[in-house]
Amino acid sequence: MTTYIFDNTLDGLLTAVFDSFAFHQQPQLLTDGEQLPLFADEPHRVVTDEAKAARVWKGLEKHLSREALHIISISWMSEERMLNQPLFNYIYKVFLTGKDLSHNVSDPDVLFVRNTCRCVLHEEQRMKQFIRFQKAKDGTYFAVVAPDHNVLPLIIDHFQDRFNDQSWLIYDARRHYGYYYGSPSSAQSDSSLLSANKQKGDVVRITFEDESSVPFDLTNGKLDPAVLSTDDQLFQDLWRTYFKAICIRERINPRKQLNDMPRRYWRYMTEKN
Question: Whole-prediction pTM value?
Fold first, then answer.
C-alpha cells in the first residue's frame, strides 16, 4: 500500500495531490505521528510546495464552481483529521475525471466533505449567537471562545459590520489567537488590555507570547476585576436576572435547551455563570 505523509496543512494536501499524479499513485494520506498501516510500503514524505499547491488550486478553479471551492475551503477549517483522506480522494477524482463532482452526493468522499462543511457553518452560526462580551475600563469589549472548529476568521466580518463603532477583541482560547478591531470613532487611542500594535479601524490578528500574564481567565473568559469596567458587572447581573425572568418553569425542556445551547459553550456565557 502506497502511503504519503504530509504536514496537515491545506498546501501540504494539495502538494500531495500534485505528487500523486506525478508518480501515478493514489496513496493513503497520513500526518506525522499517525501509525502506518500493516504491509505498507516505505512512505513518501510530502514536502509542502506553495507553487505546486497553487497549480493544483488553479486546476480546481477550472473544474469546480465557486460554491464547490468554498465548500473545500470551509471544510478544511474543521481541523478534522478524518477529513484528510476523503478530501484528497475528492480532489484526486476531480482531476481524474475532469468533472465537477461537487453535487455527486452518492460519492462517499464528496458527501463527507460536504457534511464537514455543513458542521463548520453550523459552528459559525452558533458563535455569532453565543459570544458574550465584557467591557474593559478602557472601553474595549472582550470575549473568549473555544469553538470545536476554527471558525473565528468566518465570523469577524459579522462583528466588524455590527459593532463598527466599538473596539473589541475576540480570542480563541483553544487555538491561542484572536482578532482585535479598533473603532475609528473610539476616543481611546490605546488599550491597556493589549500590548500588540494596532491601527484604528482595522482588524488585526493577535497572539500573546505569555498567556499566563494576560488579564483574563482562559477557562471561563472572565476579565480580572482590575480591568473590568465598573458598570459591566451590573450589566452582567441584569442580564442574568433577565434570563431567569423569561424562563417559564412549567415549560422547561432540558433536552431541547441542550440541543439549542450545547453545554460546551456554557463556560463562556454570562447567563450560565
Answer: 0.85
How far apart (Å, rounded) are the C-alpha atoms in residues 187 and 199?
13
Place 174 in a pLDDT band, splitting at 50, 70 and 90: very high
Residue 41 pLDDT more than 80? no
Per-domain residue ranges of the chain: 3-122, 131-272
129 vs 233, higher pLDDT: 129
What's the confidence (pLDDT) of residue 235? 79
